[in-house]
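ESCALATION

Customer reports they have been waiting on this structure for their group meeting. Please prioritize. Original submission:
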Amino acid sequence: MTGKPICKPDGSSEKIKICMKDGQLPSGEPQSFYFPEGHPRAGPFKGMALILEERGFGDMSKTRAECKGFKCAPGATACCCHHILYNQPDFANVDSLLEAICMARGVLVLFLPKFHCELNFVEQCWGGQYRHRAGVHPLIDDAQVFEPIPTIYGRIWPWIEWQAGSVGIQEVPWASSSS
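Update from on-call: job pushed to the front of the queue and completed.
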């Protein structure tokens, strides 16, 4: 694959339909999101309402597909089909395509909070380099002033565990110190 669009002989773009993998019903059985062969509508996506009905949510035909702008009311649990389906275990616990590709190659993907400099390796490395360079003679080799990544990782990891809920804030070093 070159990343370029594939064209048909008539010049139009070649489109490949990629279906979602089956979900899982509460009973543990697989649930297809597409109408099966032999069905009068064989092939197309069933739709969120029908998928939820198959999962035992009753008649969902009058439930809206999504809240305006995907902004559900705080605390709402059954305001729209999108919200209900999004919170189903087999939808909520799915790895992204990036995670799946990286895992297949043996690479761990760690998503950090957006724009949070205290939990961002790049910002920590940059800050460490800046701190070490302050007042250092310009002829000193970079390897002598760079803070090693394992040191940064060790400083950040307790915060990541705290955000995941696996430790209390009192167990995070320097969390209560004012800086």
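Sent to customer with the following note: The chain has two domains: 18-94, 98-171.
Escalation resolved.
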